[in-house]
Write a structure and sequence with these properties.
binds UDP-4-deoxy-4-formamido-beta-L-arabinopyranose; alpha/beta; two-stranded parallel ribbon; about 350 residues
């Protein structure tokens, strides 16, 4: 099976590319390198010993996307490409809505016109918003998001559900074949491939906890600011469901296989189901790197929810997938990547 990945050189896309190649699939990567590096593609080829067909293009560039899809005619598309910085989305909402929603609409139009039918979507647990208490299950209604980035995921899920329903109606709606859609709601992806060859390479000051801790550990930053210790949790800091990026990548292999075998639409949580607090993550990372991580307690960060973790039973039941790698492996692999590549893919 040939699978095309938009954003296939990015953090989750690159790990999924490796998992798909390892499982024997043929991979085509489409990426505009706006937040990724061609070096990641070279490393993926080195790691797997396999060739990747690479197209430099923005997933919202309809003329280019149409040509690429027409030439490759992939059996499945996995759509990762998108802007993903929560804070930036508050400053640039129009750019976030334009870019993220455009990519999905563009892909759907091209798929409809070319008769392509399988789509795996990179969604986020952020769609649960603040409306529920964890563990989050897929049948909970989507909540109210706390930032434009989250709303773009929420809206893209809605677009996919409506397009899938219309595709069932056949020629009247312009679809030659019913769509098979799998939407994956990620919790907090962290860690890197065990080789230390590929990993997360944030531009500028990291927004997320794990890359920030990693940069403190390697000496690039003085200390971590812990955003609040007055939450109603055992140690006062927020709890999250941190999932090893290779577990997540393997979840995409299962999702692509599921989409190939079933028509219709399904949504799955991809998480470990286990919450860890910010201070527990700091502690686990300091064990992995062998020294203390300097931190200071700061104010709460606007928009943070206290608790978020998955009920991942549905993925286990229908995809035969569950997270296998624990917190020690996460920190070990994150440290390996960071210590071997202190400047990411740059020199
Ligand atoms: C985790 C915890 C922070 C940084 C976000 C997006 C989500 C998804 C993943 C994807 C929180 C605390 C963090 C720091 C800290 N997006 N923290 N000091 O906010 O759960 O999820 O990333 O593309 O949609 O919302 O992840 O890693 O930013 O934070 O104390 O310097 O670490 O308050 O409790 P979050 P995170």
């Amino acid at each position: 099976m040939k699978i095309l990945l938009t954003g296939g050189a990015g953090y989750i896309g690159s790990h999924t590319t490796v998992a798909l190649l390892t499982a024997g699939y043929n991979v085509v990567v489409l990426d505009d390198f706006s937040n990724s590096s061609p070096e990641a593609v070279r490393r993926m080829e080195k790691l797997t010993g396999k060739a990747i067909s690479l197209y430099e293009a923005n997933a919202a560039d309809k003329a280019k996307v149409f040509e690429i899809l027409k030439r490759e005619m992939p059996e499945s598309i996995i759509h990762f490409a998108g802007l993903k910085a929560v804070g930036e989305s508050v400053e640039k909402p129009v750019e976030y809505y334009r870019n993220n929603i455009d990519t999905t609409l563009t892909l759907l139009e091209c798929m409809r016109d070319l008769g392509l039918s399988r789509f795996v979507f990179s969604s986020s647990a952020t769609v649960y918003g603040e409306a529920h208490t964890p563990p989050f299950t897929e049948e909970m209604t989507k909540g109210s998001c706390t930032n434009p980035y989250g709303w773009t995921k929420w809206i893209q899920e809605q677009i996919l559900a409506d397009a899938q329903e219309a595709s069932e109606k056949g020629l009247i709606s312009g679809w030659k074949t019913p769509l098979s859609v799998v939407m994956l709601r990620y919790f907090n992806p962290v860690g890197s491939h065990e080789s230390g060859l590929i990993g997360e390479d944030p531009q500028g000051i990291p927004n997320n906890l794990m890359p920030f801790i990693s940069q403190v550990a390697v000496g690039m930053r003085d200390k971590l600011i812990v955003f609040g210790d007055d939450y109603d949790t055992p140690d006062g800091t927020c709890r999250r469901d941190y999932i090893h990026v290779m577990d997540l990548a393997e979840g995409h292999v299962k999702a692509a296989e599921y989409a190939a075998a079933h028509e219709g639409i399904e949504v799955f949580n991809l998480g470990s189901g286990k919450p860890y607090s910010v201070l527990e993550m700091v502690e686990a990372f300091s064990k992995a790197c062998g020294h203390d991580i300097a931190y200071e307690i700061g104010a709460r960060r606007a928009g943070d929810i206290q608790d978020s973790w998955a009920n991942a039973e549905k993925a286990k039941r229908l995809l035969g997938w569950e997270a296998k790698r624990g917190i020690e492996e996460i920190c070990h692999d994150a440290w390996k990547w960071q210590s071997q590549n202190p400047n990411g893919y740059g020199e």
